[in-house]
Task: structure prediction
Amino acid sequence: MKLNISKAAKDAALEILSFTPEKRKKQRFSFLFEPPKTAWGFLCKLINNTERKTIMKKRLLTLILGACMTISLAACGDSDKDTKKTSADLTLGQYKGLEVSKSTAEITDEELSEAVERVLKSNQKNEYVEEGTTEKDNKITAIYTATLDGESVSALSSSSSGNAVTLSDGSFAIDGFIDQLIGKQVGSKVEFDVTIPEDTDKSALKTYAGKIIHYTVEIKNIINTITPELTDEWVKEKYSYMDISTIDGFKEYLKRQMYLSYVYDEVKNTLLNNSTVNSYDSDLLSKYTDIAAKQFESTISSYYGITLDAYLQAMDKTEEEFRKEKEEEAKPDLKERMIIEKIAETEKITLSDEEFNTRMEQYAVEYGLETVDKLKQYYDGVWDDSDWKYSILAEKVQEIICDNVKVVEDKEEESTAAAE
Result:
């Protein structure tokens, strides 16, 4: 049974293709077991974990939100200290001629245009205009202070430097707030009252249901979002480090990355299933388990503000059981690495020092970290040179896999043809 890459997966791929260096830097633990790569290389990990992460977050939210625990976090790296050492052993299966659906392998003009648009939008810049009159649908910076019976209400107020507010219907939690800010001069202060409905269904407002809130608002500026125009000059400015300097070159590059992302995502499960792991390298498996544990810890801390110990207590789970779960999650990713390295060995793919240094310099630019030293420092404790070399090697291997697929008709098209 063939698996077509889903629209959600393609959307996720396009989202990552349009990441700015600043956004990429925030993804330090988001892409499990793969160092960051340009475009397609690290896309596969996000796409394949997107659904799982969503489900995980929903389950965690249900199970944990009621638990108010502040137990300190225990270390989770030494539980396998006495495990017997093993080395990697893999029986490599078929990796060329893997079937991929036609709709996945063929990048349409519409898909390419959408990708270009996303890249341009990801490079938008804000222009702050400190004069003029506000209009409906403007985006502004406003400093607003809410008071109730003369007492400040911080929960309904902005930060001291102001918040961005879009002057459109439904963009603010409190009805009537936006209307008071349309048609006002930048730099002016506005005061008005709003009444929170008795039957409000907004959880943040229920405490103030039926209350009259007084607002004092200072309109600091109007924010104009500027989307860059796709020109040779813009391409050269953004992609010269990749030796891309024209619109045509940029589109060709982007289309290539989309092809590699989409195709590899579709054939990955088949690739994994075709090979057999006889034994894992125990040191690498422990390392991958550590990364899975850290990523999980980071997720529950960021989204729910709880510690790993609090999670384990809420789930009635031991640290050993948790480590075992993360080890099982890590195995497919380690298996993928073993397959990539075995294919590289079979295809006699090598990586020269010059290639490694050049690609590392490109990584540094992509992540806005300026130099290779800063890149390595940022990922210190997560990746070492062997991981970066694997990342670059994986790019070469995945190109071989994707360039040697067998393109077949989509399942729906086959069914239609059979019916006719």
About this structure: The radius of gyration is 26 Å. Strands lie at 89-91, 99-101, 125-129, 139-148, 151-152, 163-166, 189-195, 212-226, 276-279, 406-408.
